[in-house]
């Protein structure tokens, strides 16, 4: 098991290296470098060249790349061109918001999706089954940003049940240690701050959860249906085991494997939806910041953020692979 | 001894019987099952309507979709929040620039269909090329083949490790905002999916008995890959293409929402119309709801048909 994890981590190295080369070339081919974003309309050719020189962009690509790799290995991702702060600082400031949002969305998607999919499978052909299958089909087809706008218009602007933007009410004056606002509130025992942060997470969380929820319902239903037809379930039932045991230990556990795979893939892919939801709810996470960085041609931020996100994505997949063997002893990873 | 002869006799009987009735092809059988599936019929009807509107839209439209007549006649003052709703003449009212909204909905179908189809084709072509080469190389090519496969798949994995919308946004930044950009960006996002799918499917087929038979008959490797393995591996790719048509339309709308779509909003397209309507959600929600509903229903049509196709082609579900 340990060797498997180490080998998977080593396999990461060429992938990340290749990705960094690809990104490096790619980003520098974008028209209008950072000097356009900094100088705007008033940039003369001489001024532009000066800015480029000060950022080290006039040197050959290979030297620029070499410097980037050297710095990255020292865990220095450089300074953002637009905010003049260190990329790692920016990341630590914004990433917690996106993580909180992603976790909220996954809690909603898993918490509602697995029971709903399970019930739909147990009561196959009833109205509950039809409703959840139909609902999940529609859930996949609704554009996330539209759903976000509708939720915001109804529950925040019309009914006023939830806040319409931001991560926390600034007038609370909460202390921030880790920038995970909910965690900070719990650690400092500022209960109202934590509650307010959770309150801000509800609507964007639901909007972001829509697609994973729909997919989890479908995959759970299909997977449970397949396991329910297996011989060992009938054996377990005829042995006289309680329905609870059969459901938990025999049906659900065996149906979990494809569900866990999908959950892993979905968690990694949630960032796309996060960009959209964060934009609609003016929620300061990495999604909105990355979008700005692209329009500002903020190379250090883009390189750093995308590499960390890719690393994160691959790590999530690794965790999924490892969790297989915990759920299903038949899968022995070597 | 006699049992062996019996067996051979029975085998020859069987093959004679097969010659008589001739097996039904996979696609004929799949089509037959599709016709009996209500979900498939619903999807097909939705798509048929969509395609008819896309083709005939400009003829059916009662007004010129780009003509800001509402502003000219002074009925629409979006700056003051005056956008009239449905009337007898204008079935869905005006949009924020005083153009007849019903006409824009009809004409917009064509652009939306175009975005969906072309971006899916881009993804399918490039993805199938990469996946096909990797699959053929891995399945038949020995050591060199395995290397080609590993290198190609690592590149695909790198593309997969990038969040799809980020990839699309950076492509859009490289090419500038336009409808073509949206098609390329949305298409590129589906490249790794198609590549992995076709490769996996080809690898599964490469172990088949008919490949072994063709090899022992002395058929060339390239011919086996192209005329034996490839056609048998296409089913999951076609299913995925149908499903991708749905996501392509939704993703194109997301790019328009981020301001990377067609900057000339005079030409109606549902995604752009939905994005343009956001500031007026409080005044005239219909401006957002109609294009959103159109996108959702169309995506639903493609998804229903794709899922039904998947079921019809799945050998596990046969009979």
TrEMBL record, chain A:
Domain ABC transmembrane type-1: from-to ranges: 95-320
Main location: membrane
One BP annotation, GO: transmembrane transport
Domain of life (superkingdom): Bacteria
Keywords of this entry: Cell membrane, Membrane, Transmembrane, Transmembrane helix, Transport
InterPro entries: BPD_transp_1_N, MetI-like, MetI-like_sf
Localization (cell): Cell membrane
Topology in the lipid bilayer: Multi-pass membrane protein
Stretches that traverse the bilayer: 9-27, 101-121, 133-155, 197-217, 257-290, 302-327
GO CC terms of this entry: plasma membrane
Family the UniProt entry places it in: Belongs to the binding-protein-dependent transport system permease family.
Protein name: Peptide ABC transporter permease
Organism: Spirilliplanes yamanashiensis
TrEMBL record, chain B:
Gene3D superfamilies: MetI-like
Cellular compartments per GO CC: plasma membrane
Membrane topology per record: Multi-pass membrane protein
Location in the cell: Cell membrane
Residue ranges annotated for the ABC transmembrane type-1 domain, each copy included: 109-306
Segments crossing the lipid bilayer: 39-61, 113-139, 151-173, 179-198, 237-260, 288-309
Entry-linked SUPFAM superfamilies: MetI-like (SSF161098)
Keywords: Cell membrane, Membrane, Transmembrane, Transmembrane helix, Transport
GO annotation, biological process: transmembrane transport
Family: Belongs to the binding-protein-dependent transport system permease family.
Name of this protein: ABC transporter permease
Species name: Spirilliplanes yamanashiensis
Taxonomic lineage from the root: Bacteria, Bacillati, Actinomycetota, Actinomycetes, Micromonosporales
């Amino acid at each position: 098991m340990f060797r498997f994890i180490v080998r998977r981590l080593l396999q990461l190295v060429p992938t990340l290296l290749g990705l960094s080369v690809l990104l490096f070339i790619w980003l520098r081919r974008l028209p209008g470098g950072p000097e356009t974003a900094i100088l705007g309309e008033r940039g003369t050719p001489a001024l532009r060249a000066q800015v480029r020189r000060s950022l080290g962009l006039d040197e050959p690509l290979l030297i620029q790349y070499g410097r980037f790799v050297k710095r990255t290995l020292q865990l220095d991702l450089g300074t953002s061109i637009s905010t003049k702060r260190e990329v790692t600082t920016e990341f630590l400031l914004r990433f917690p918001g996106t993580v909180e949002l992603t976790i909220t969305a996954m809690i909603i998607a898993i918490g509602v999706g697995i029971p709903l999919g399970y019930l739909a499978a147990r009561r196959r052909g009833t109205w509950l089954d039809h409703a959840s299958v139909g609902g999940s089909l529609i859930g996949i087809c609704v554009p996330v940003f539209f759903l976000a706008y509708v939720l915001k218009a109804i529950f925040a602007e019309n009914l006023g049940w939830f806040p319409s933007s931001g991560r926390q009410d600034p007038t609370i004056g909460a202390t921030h240690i880790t920038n995970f606002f909910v965690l900070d509130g719990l650690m400092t025992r500022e209960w109202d701050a934590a509650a307010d942060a959770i309150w801000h997470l509800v609507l964007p969380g639901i909007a972001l959860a829509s697609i994973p929820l729909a997919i989890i319902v479908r995959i759970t239903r299909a997977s449970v249906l397949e396991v329910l037809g297996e011989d060992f379930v009938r054996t377990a039932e005829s042995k006289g085991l309680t329905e609870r045991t059969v459901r938990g230990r025999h049906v659900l556990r065996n149906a979990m494997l494809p569900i866990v795979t999908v959950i892993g893939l979905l968690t990694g892919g949630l960032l796309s939806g996060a960009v959209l939801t964060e934009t609609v709810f003016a929620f300061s996470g990495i999604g909105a910041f990355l979008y700005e960085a692209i329009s500002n041609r903020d190379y250090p931020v883009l390189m750093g953020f995308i590499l960390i996100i890719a690393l994160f994505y691959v790590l999530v997949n690794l965790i999924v692979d490892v969790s297989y063997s915990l759920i299903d002893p038949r899968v022995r990873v070597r | 001894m006699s049992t062996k002869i019996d067996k051979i006799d029975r085998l020859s009987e069987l093959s004679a019987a097969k010659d008589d009735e001739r097996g039904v092809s996979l696609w004929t059988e799949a089509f037959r099952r599709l016709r009996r599936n209500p979900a498939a019929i619903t999807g097909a009807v939705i798509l048929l309507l969509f395609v008819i509107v896309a083709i005939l839209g400009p003829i059916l439209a009662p007004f010129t979709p780009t003509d800001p007549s509402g502003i000219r006649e002074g009925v629409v003052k979006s700056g003051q929040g005056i956008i009239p709703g449905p009337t007898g003449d204008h079935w869905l009212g005006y949009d924020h620039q005083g153009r007849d909204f019903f006409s824009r909905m009809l004409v917009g179908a064509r652009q939306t269909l175009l975005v969906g189809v072309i971006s899916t084709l881009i993804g399918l072509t490039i993805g199938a090329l990469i996946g096909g080469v990797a699959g053929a190389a891995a399945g038949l090519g020995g050591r060199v083949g395995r290397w080609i496969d590993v290198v190609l798949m690592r590149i695909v994995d790198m593309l997969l490790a990038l969040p799809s919308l980020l990839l699309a946004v950076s492509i859009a930044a490289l090419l500038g905002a336009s409808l073509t950009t949206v098609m390329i960006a949305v298409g590129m996002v589906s490249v790794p999916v198609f590549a992995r799918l076709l490769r996996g499917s080809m690898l599964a087929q490469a172990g088949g008995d008919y490949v072994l038979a063709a090899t022992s008959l002395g058929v060339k490797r390239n011919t086996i890959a192209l005329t034996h393995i490839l056609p048998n591996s296409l089913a999951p790719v076609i299913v995925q293409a149908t499903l991708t048509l749905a996501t392509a339309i939704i993703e194109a709308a997301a790019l328009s929402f981020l301001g990377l779509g067609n900057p000339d909003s005079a030409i109606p397209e549902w995604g752009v119309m939905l994005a343009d309507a956001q500031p007026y959600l409080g005044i005239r929600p219909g401006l957002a709801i109609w294009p959103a509903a159109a996108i959702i229903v169309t995506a639903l049509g493609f998804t229903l048909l794709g899922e039904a196709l998947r079921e019809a082609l799945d050998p596990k579900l046969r009979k």
